[in-house]
Amino acid sequence: MTANLVAKPKDEMDFEEYDEEAGLGIDLFKTPYGNAYGHTGLIFSYHAELFYFPDRDATIALAINSTSPKIEELMNELRDEILELL
Question: What pTM value is reported for the model?
Answer without folding.
Answer: 0.67
